[in-house]
Each structure stands twice: as C-alpha cells, then as structure tokens.
Amino acid sequence: MSELLHIENLTCGYNSKTVLQNISFSVNKGEVLAVIGQNGCGKSTLLKSIFQITADLSGEISFAGTNLMMLKPWNIKQAGISLFLQGGMVFSAMKVSEHFELALKEKSKTEATNILEECLNYFPALEKLMDKLGGNLSGGQRQMLSFAMLLSQQTQCWLLDEPTAGLSPESAKQAIDFLRKMKQEKQKTMLLVEHNYQAAFNLADRVAIIKEGKWLDGFSKIEFQNENFLNTHLYN
Prior knowledge:
Layout: E1 3-14, E2 17-28, E3 32-36, H1 43-50, E4 56-63, E5 66-67, H2 73-79, E6 81-84, H3 96-104, H4 109-122, H5 139-152, E7 157-161, H6 169-186, E8 189-193, H7 197-203, E9 206-211, E10 214-219, H8 221-224, H9 229-235
Helix pairs in contact: 4-5, 5-6
C-alpha cells in the first residue's frame, strides 16, 4: 500500500499549552488506523491539528504529497480530507433535505443527483425524513444523516472523532458496519479516534496509543486482540 497521510514531528496544543509532542506516523491508502487513549490525552487535538483548526502547531503534515501546513480547512477538504467531529454533522434548525442542499450546492445538477442517490442507497431511511428538522431526529437518525453528509463530500481520507459516541449499541454497530463498508467497497483511508475500543479494534488494520502526549505505534491486529493489551500498553 502507498503512503497517503504523513505526519512528521507534529507538536500541537492550545493557548501555549503543549498537548502532543513530536508525533510522527503515516497512514497508507485504504488503511484504517485507530487511535486510542485515556480522556484528555490529545486524540481529538490530533485530528483538529491535521485539519488545521488548532492555533499552536508545528511540524510537517502532508497528504498525497501536498503540504497541508498553513492551509485553510476548506482547502484541506478540497485536497481530499474530511473531518467528522464528535456528535456528527447535523444542524438542529435545518431540515434533512436542506442538509443535502447545502452539502451539494457547489456540485453540478448531475453530480448532485448521483451523490444524493448514493447517500440514500446507503441510508434509505433518510428518504422518509427529508422534511424533518435535524433537532427532531433520534440519535441513530442523526448519525445516518451525519454519515451521509460525510459521504457527500467525496473525499479520500476521513478523520473520525468518536463516531459511536452517545449511540445505542444497535446504532453503534450500524455505524461501524457502515465504516467497514466504506473501507471494503471504497477503500476509504481513516484515522479513527474511538472510545469504544472493541469497535475500533474490529475495524482497524493498526492501532496507535496516545499516552502522556507521546505516540505509541506499530501494534498489529493480533496484538490488540490480546486481553492484556490495554492493561499493558494503555493503563500502566
């Protein structure tokens, strides 16, 4: 597999407080790299830094050979990366149909029709919810719409911040099943931050740990399926 996302000596934080120090890693095309760690360790900060929405930032970030440092989030999305923030991508005062209109407004009519059809193919239940406000959707419905919005961006690489947070067990399973389809059918590259370790382990090709601002990488799928993995590498 070819390298797609490359991070070199990344140091980042907020208000002059360093959260992550000299982190280096790469993600290959079509690979899912799960990032785990205890609350407050900097997992979300890592994703936001790659998407250039943290203020204190140094190091190198490149995607498909393009230097992302100092680019605006819109330009990063144009380069092929989407950021999925915890809680999803739903506006409470907008109808479901209006979410699609906003997401597809810069596409040609043909492109917009094709993308909408693709989204509804994966989430057919949304077709009956078009007139419903985002704020009136259930947790599972919000997640369906959020994933549809993510899919509509047509990007290669997804930065996913806790995609199963706040979901019922059934909705969380559906979320992971969708991401697995994206990996298998579309070879999406994913950097996955997830508190549900078992879900992360089932989906990921590789697992990294952030601990005390440091990056621990190189764990294989066989290793992290070991029942002592978390105790040995995360909590001790």
